[in-house]
Design a protein that fits this description.
Blueprint lengths: L4 H28 L3 H33 L3 H14 L17 H10 L3 E3 H11 L6 H4 L9 H16 L10 E3 L2 H18 L5
Antiparallel strand pairs: 1-2
Helix pairs in contact: 1-2, 1-7, 4-5, 4-8
């Protein structure tokens, strides 16, 4: 079963963890500056987000059990066992290339592919065009499926782009398709870049 759902869960959890880290750092700064009210509010928010994260983890496990046919309790036991055997190092906020930076390469790849093509073909062109942009964190292989982080980020960027209307929400499964809005967006971005190279205000 091909699905973007596992990708969404993986990157959503990473983003939530980054948010928790940011709140923790803000709380520490507030405490050090003796702003106890702000520190307390940040701590409470961090606790709420941590509980929310657990709900997402539970939903992820439920989804995995549905698609694999494995009992949820058995699945959780297996996950805990894998976690003990292999520690997953959380990526700090700001180390991977931002999702927004993928929009242009994704749209340009689809233009090259005559407007639409399979996710496999799009990923090939995105990797080629962003080769010099990817850092070691983008290229890092993720422990849960062995795929590079940039692939997951590309998929998550695609979800944002569908929501923004840059990619079609009606494309067949496994196919990405640019919309007229996406073409206009790319043209404006390219025009802006050309102006920047010409040292004009964008």
């Amino acid at each position: 079963m091909n699905s973007d759902v596992p990708v969404a869960f993986d990157i959503l959890l990473e983003e939530i963890e980054n948010t928790i880290d940011d709140l923790s750092q803000e709380g520490t700064r507030a405490f050090q500056s003796r702003d106890l009210v702000a520190a307390g509010q940040l701590a409470e928010k961090g606790e709420q987000i941590t509980k929310f994260r657990q709900k997402i983890v539970d939903l992820q496990e439920e989804w995995n059990s549905i698609v694999s046919g494995v009992n949820i309790r058995e699945r959780k036991t297996a996950v805990r066992r894998r976690s003990k055997d292999k520690k997953i190092k959380r990526l700090q906020h700001g180390l991977r290339t931002p999702q927004r930076d993928y929009y242009g390469p994704i749209l340009q790849s689809l233009i090259t592919l005559r407007g639409k093509d399979s996710v496999t073909e799009v990923l090939k062109l995105v990797e080629r065009s962003m080769k010099s942009v990817f850092n070691k964190y983008d290229r890092e292989l993720l422990p849960y499926d062995g795929k590079p982080r940039w692939e997951k980020t590309t998929n998550f960027a695609r979800m944002d782009m569908v929501r923004l209307g840059l990619l079609s929400s009606n494309a067949e499964r496994g196919v990405w398709e640019i919309t007229e809005k996406g073409k206009r967006w790319l043209a404006e971005e390219n025009e802006c870049y050309d102006q920047y190279r010409g040292e004009e205000a964008c």
